[in-house]
Amino acid sequence: MKKLLNLLGLILILSSCTQTKNTNMFDIFSPDEQVHASFFLTAKGRPAYKLSFKGKTIIDTSYLGFKLKEGDFPSVGMTVENHETSQVNETWEMPWGEKRNVINHYHELIINLKESQPPQRKMNLIFRVYNDGIGFRYEFPEQENFTKAIIMEEKTQFNLVGDPLVWWQPGDWDIYEHLYNTSRFSEIDALSKRDHADLAQTHIPENAVNTPVTMKTNDKIYLSFHEANLTDYSGMTLKVDTAGLSMESCLVGSERSGFKVKRSLPFKTPWRTIQIAETAGGLIESDLIVNLNEPNRLGDISWFTPMKYAGIWWEMHLGKSTWAYEGGKHGATTEHAKELIDFASENNIGGLLVEGWNTGWEHWIGFEEREGVFDFVTPYPDYNLEEVVRYGREKGVELIMHHETSAAPRTYEQQLDTAFSLMQKLGIHSVKTGYVGKIIPKGEYHHGQWMVNHYRKVLETAASYKIAVNAHEPIKATGIRRTLPNAISREGLRGQEFNAWAKDGGNPPEHLSIIAFTRMLAGPIDFTPGIFDIKFKEWKEMNQVNTTLAQQLALYVVIYSPIQMAADLIENYRGNPAFRFIRDVGVDWEQSLVLNGEPGDYVTIAREEKNTGNWFVGGISDENARDMVINFDFLPDGITFEASIYKDGANAHWDKNPLAISIDSRHIKKGDELNVWLAPGGGFAISLLATGGSE
Ligand code: NOJ
Ligand code: CA
Predict the structure, then answer these.
(1) E strands along 450-531, which residues?
(2) Which atom of ligand 1 is nearest to the CA of 404?
(3) Distance (Å) from CA 499 to ligand 1 centroid
(4) 404 lines ligand 1 (CB under 6 A)
(5) Which atom of ligand 1 is nearest to the CA of 402?
(6) What is the model's pTM?
(7) How far is CA 501 from CA 169, 177, 315, 504, 505, in A?
(8) What count of Cα atoms within 13 Å lies in the side-chain half-sphere of residue 208?
(9) What is residue 28's predicted lDDT score, i.e. its pLDDT?
(10) What domains can you pick out in the chain, each with its CATH number?
(11) Would you say the CB of residue 436 lies under 6 angstroms from ligand 1?
């Protein structure tokens, strides 16, 4: 049977990659033949491509190439030396993830190009066409007289058709902690977003956007542009030509080195990706980004278990306690950690993050001299690391290590082995890292090649110590988690913490209904949901969370991460019946389905927990109230689930009445329907327990 399928595949590929009469034009189709990419050389030998979906052009003629230190590449017309096509249709298993099995089915076209006159340099282009989009990359093959490439700019174009609606954030070389903007493409104005009171690092040199950037065309097709497998290269922002309605790659640079990328040949660039879907939810269900990465290199990583975690964390953001020891309000004490371990172990929470445990915090934010400040092995005097680890182990709660580097990566690299050895000795299998501030040395940015390599070095070194990494102020996610599944989660967005202190009032109610269709396409997010004391008046007069309580519950399902924080102070959970949802909700999934959604408006996701058969559903709304009908057709036949439904109470409102919540229980089975009302800034969460649930 398999042979027959392979044969059928071969026939399909023969018919789906054709070279038209023009010997310089190559067409390649997706397995379902709906996505169609064409590569061609112009009359002058310039490489270009086009893309269409269901017969409609999505990307019109767009040129490909580079500006190298010595000039343009190609500098003269190119000729096609050779081309090859192939296909892959395989299924691989995620060690943890939104689903167990991922289908990787694509048609590939490789074109070998050469400059037609001296210097006759070679370049290959690789296209992979999937049912859910395309990826293409450049290969600089081994060749004589061209052994090193100093890239001043990559010049990959994306020439759009029409003026789509875009969900975008400014192309920042440092940080992805911006709000998303919604506008027509022709109205993108990233430079107006430069001034930001809440960011310790930001650099926006061009009218460009960060990726993923998501769009809806006038034909109601959803597109998202990003990159996959960002390895030993600079992150790509997309420079926007609002008049010409096109985008061009703008790599993150370095004032220290004066170039954007330096590589020895042979090498391949990251994939440039375009996800395509007819529904917005299709973008979330797409596996394009992980599929374009190499298979798992770590093998068995069962030493990391997806988990919920509590933390000595939100209290610092509220100002209740401090990271620093001095000042009399130190949060990370042995006693406090034990109190949280007790709470976690009673409530199906497997991890505890303790921030502010190590020396150095007295010289954190605002200090220019940050080299050599943090020490990743020395606890403050009121924190007995060994004892906390021992107590946690006794109670079945594993400690999550914290390493705030304060954006001094050289100091961190010097201590990596010592720091990870200590963790290994103590049996700690995950670390949250942080890179707050401008990168030292000056002139480097969080998303430049130098830092891309630093983040990778940390990840690879961590893997060798059986340590999983959750990076904050990270390099953006590009699907590396497939290859190195110890890349468990990351920030790289405006997380919950902004609600505690942002001068601009925090994340608006629409924030996460945009995040789900933009940032989340890149990979898992450590958003840190679950704030119950929405207004936290005791701590901050001017700040609050801008959602209802029910939406905070929904986020455990909507926002995917294999580690999910129960972020609030434990006193706000104790005695609150809504907390049961956090206790019950899964963190590792057999499958995930997007039931409905529209960027910036609403989204509902259903996920089946791995190995239990339990399902969880979460839905969120923007600042508008809405009614929804949830159809339980996705449930398996013949099982009646014990459902608990947590939804916005009558008159709930993110600002005026955020705590109103209604909780009820009933039986639900396949085919049932449920009407839910989502308040402005609201949401709902449903647990469907196959076994009757926890007590
Ligand atoms: C910024 C991180 O996003 C936050 O979670 C952390 O508490 C601080 N840095 C301190 O490392
Ligand atoms: Ca942050």
Answers:
(1) 468-471, 487-490
(2) 11
(3) 13
(4) yes
(5) 11
(6) 0.96
(7) 21, 14, 12, 9, 8
(8) 22
(9) 98
(10) 2-291 (2.70.98.10)
(11) yes
